[in-house]
Write a structure and sequence with these properties.
globular, 8 strands, alpha+beta
């Protein structure tokens, strides 16, 4: 299926059934079907040269579990800093549409854009897919991305990208550049 979304798909380090099971156990919820198929067929890498998706792989720099925790921790620290050390007021998110900010409490981060936006699942138990949202780099604005991963990716490849990533974003090329284990290790070393 993903080769129709990304003509000339170049897969990266792919998730195995054991990798997916480990991630589900460590995260405490089932991964959505569209994401599972992406992790198996495409693996770790970047969409359109701009959006890095993290998948369950044995290399920390590209692993969903490691990155989800790291991103959530980093955002929490940044929000504490924005509050000025705790004035008692919770951080206010501007959420698109009729959703409310409580979705941030259910967020599982699984992707990051080159400009610092974060993609996350709104983990809602009992549903086969989780809505995908984007927390903009301002750590305030939250845009709806799609009802599943293929819908998100197709939206990013067209004019819907303006609603997903916000002003100034242009459609992403229909490419996927996979990262093998060595490339992920280099990425990890560069981030350290």
């Amino acid at each position: 299926m993903w080769d129709s979304v990304f003509p000339g798909l170049r897969p990266g380090l792919r998730s195995t059934d054991a990798d997916l099971a480990r991630a589900e156990t460590e995260l405490g919820f089932a991964l959505p079907a569209s994401y599972r198929s992406f992790a198996r067929e495409c693996g770790a890498g970047r969409i359109g040269g701009h959006l890095r998706l993290f998948t369950p792989v044995p290399v920390e720099a590209g692993d969903l579990v490691a990155r989800a925790h790291l991103i959530a921790h980093g955002i929490a620290l940044a929000l504490d800093g924005l509050r000025g050390g705790g004035d008692g007021e919770p951080h206010r998110f501007t959420v698109e549409g009729d959703a409310d900010a409580s979705l941030m409490e259910r967020a599982c981060f699984f992707g990051e854009t080159a400009r610092g936006d974060f993609l996350f699942f709104d983990v809602t138990p009992g549903f086969p897919e989780y809505d995908i949202w984007v927390l903009n780099a301002d750590l305030e604005t939250v845009h709806f991305g799609g009802a599943d991963l293929p819908t998100l990716v197709r939206g990013l490849q067209g004019l819907e990208v303006l609603h997903i990533l916000g002003e100034g974003a242009g459609p992403l090329p229909a490419t996927f550049e996979g990262d093998d284990a060595a490339a992920l290790e280099q990425l990890g070393a560069a981030q350290a």
